[in-house]
Amino acid sequence: MLVACPHTQVVTIPGAVFFLPNEVADRVADVILQTAAHARR
């Protein structure tokens, strides 16, 4: 699967285990914003 998606990045968020948008919403938002900013380049 990763071969088909060469621009995939795995992000590990320590301590979060169940439903990331609820547990670490700020961190998830940061990752999404960083990804969107990178995609615009």
Describe the structure.
The protein has 41 residues and is mainly alpha-helical. It is built from 2 helices and no strands. The chain has helices at 20-23, 25-39. The longest helix has 15 residues, at 25-39. It is flat, with a radius of gyration of 12 Å. The mean pLDDT is 83.
Order of helices and strands: HH
Derived structural class: mainly alpha
Share in β-strands: under 5%
Radius of gyration: 12 Å
The helical percent reads 40-55%
Report how far the terminal alpha carbons are from each other.
24 Å
Poorly predicted runs are none
Strand count, sense and closure of the main sheet? none
Task: Give the beta-strand count.
Answer: 0
Task: Write down the overall geometry.
Answer: flat
Number of helices: 2
Average pLDDT number: 83
Q: Which features would summarize this protein structure in a list?
A:
41 residues, mainly alpha
Q: Topology of this structure?
A:
Layout: H1 20-23, H2 25-39
Give a short synopsis of this structure.
This protein is mostly helical and 41 residues long. It has two helices and no strands. The radius of gyration is 12 Å and the shape is flat.
